Hints:
A hairpin with a 6-residue loop joins strand 8 and strand 9. The chain has one helix at 21-71, and strands at 97-103, 111-112, 114-120, 136-138, 143-144, 149-152, 160-165, 171-175, 182-183, 187-194, 201-207, 212-215. The chain has one helix and twelve strands. It is 24% helix and 26% strand. The protein has one domain (26-215): 3-Layer(bab) Sandwich (minor pseudopilin epsh fold), CATH 3.55.40.10. The protein is elongated. By secondary structure, it is of the alpha+beta class.
Amino acid sequence: MRIKFASAVDTKNFRSTGFTLIELLVVVGILIIFATYTALNINSQRPQVRVDQAAREFAGALSYAQNLATSGKVFRDELDSQGNPGVVDGIADAPNGYGVHLYSSVGDSTIFDRYHLYGDLYTGGIASKYDNASLEERVAPDVLIDARVRAQVATINLPLDIFFETGWATIHFWDNISNINELAAASLTVVFSDVADASIKRDVIINRVTSQIFVQ
């Protein structure tokens, strides 16, 4: 009896299921093109991202000051009943309100590079101004604005205080260091823009009539 075995695999018609070198090169080329496009797209958006972030952080600081004023939050004890600093009298200090102090470290009159939150404890003169560092309470340290972002308040002379009274959080704008320069404007616009391309910008608008703070 003869046993018939199956014939060997027909190698002539056999085709491997793997990729050829040309196919791999095509795929790698597509991946390189996609990665390059993505990187260029991200780089083109970075200035706008920086500007947006700076504007939203500033708007957040203003909203925080406004919320503190509305809540009537008090400070730790540090002033006596006459407003003298450094005296512990056991009485909590209720500020006149809270504000954001904008200023330039290089003496620019309209472009600021830093700001901080403060509570006004001044018992004499005009409340709400950042009058005297010893009679103010910093709620937070200086916020430094990215050097690649320009923050500007148009023709207003720095330093500038945006202040919210305790209680109803009525808004005041104080121009420069003089107590007589309270601005009567219904709203104030702070412009954040890219230093290299001024067309990339974002506005923070503070409306004194409606007490709204928004970014556009």
